[in-house]
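Supplementary Methods, section 5.1.

A reviewer requested that the exact input to the structure prediction be made available. We therefore reproduce it here, unchanged from the version used in the analyses.
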Amino acid sequence: MIVLFLLQPTGAELSAYLPTPWLLQTEPTLNPFFPQLGDKVVYCWQGHEQYINAVILNDVYRIKTKHFPWQRLRLRPQEVCVVLSMHFVVGPPTLCSVKLGILSRGQAGTSVHHTFSLRYHDLADVPDFLIPYSHFKTAVLRKWTPNDRFQCKIDDAWWTGSIVAREPWQLSVPDSLWQCFLVQWDTGEEQEKLSPWDLEVLPDDSVKPVRRGSLVDDLALALQLSGPRGVQTRRQAAMAGPSTASEEQQQFADLLEILSEGFDNDEEAWGVEGEAVARDRILCGLDALSSLPLSQPFQQPVSVEEYPDYHLVVPYPVDLGTIRQRLSNGYYRRLNSFLWDVKNVHKNAATYNEEDSQIVESSEILTELLCKFASDMNCSDLLTMYNQQQNRQNMPDEGEEYRAESGESSDSATEIDGDFDQESATAVQRVARDNNVGPQTVSGESNPSRGKRRRILSDASSESHSLQAKKAKVVKDEVSYMLLVVQWQLF
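The structure derived from this sequence is encoded token-by-token as follows.
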């Protein structure tokens, strides 16, 4: 324990674990793109390879895997995928682990025929390699050609330019759209490579900028000049010349087939009631939930000043206030994305605190309540649902009602009858469970990570331990008495 304490980061080192703006964004943005559960995205393996090379070159973090998706699977330059699951890994940097399913269309409809996982984060000066399918489709159908004018958003500012030529990022993948356009900025700066989804139609009344920020970096140029898999240099591209119209038409043929398969159909994203109605109803539910005392610890982000080690344990912080802001801003693209965030409120509380603490129990109650309310379009009163749920939990079971009517004490011994074997077995299991020392893993070994977690409500947790001890003693007495009776009868 002393060694673990000494190894924990302190002071300035803790700032490296703080969540980045990419994780905390509350408004819908295309760049940088943040995936959500159920998203239809286009995976560009060349961009993923460029990200991996940048991480290795800059020693951002240690990459453990040696087998990447493009090495294990026969992938097209662009694959339409769906986000099947995702979670986050404590950094630094905090990594987003995404499981993707490659989509295909058949007579039975859309299906997933291959899956793979990847880890990444928003790395500066490295383009996104996961592109929203709808945005990708719009960009490809635009059919950009040399001499077309465009605008591009960089660091919250718009910059204009013209397409010089279409040339592949890698000669070994000539039909790829990844950074396939060589462009010239109106400011006269160095020519750069962009992808079709980086470009937007230029308004007629646009004004040329005086200067622009750095978009394409020296790192990308270095990777292009010396990277693996037959990367084409700028000089080689210039000697090869621009592609012909027939070549471009052939290169777009496969893409147009993909785009015609209707992967962007997401009519059930918000159920029958639709996004606007569902959003307003759930916002009212969140406002009602904020009036409950048990929700107060979860209305704001956890204070780093009070709990400086929080982000050493929780990689993806989220709270009800942030969730409400995201819902109000149209951040969530479907109901499942909203529910995923809500469930993370409880997951984070259970990860940082002792599992039997009051705050974990409160987080479980409110997340289950909110998820049930949001998923049922017929529910419009969250407080009524909460009161009904509390009344059901407080109702005594049939055994308690019988003892109350007969005047027997719940602590008195039970007579031996035909159900003795089942009751005694259940009681013995309760004794064994209640006498476990410390939280246990599935294998039965103690979980060392629990030693690093903190109790936020220690008094309530102590009362819970005391109550469990009293219950365990009562059960022990009951079991001992029943075993004595059985022995006497056998004798």
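The longest strand covers residues 78-89. These observations are discussed further in the main text.
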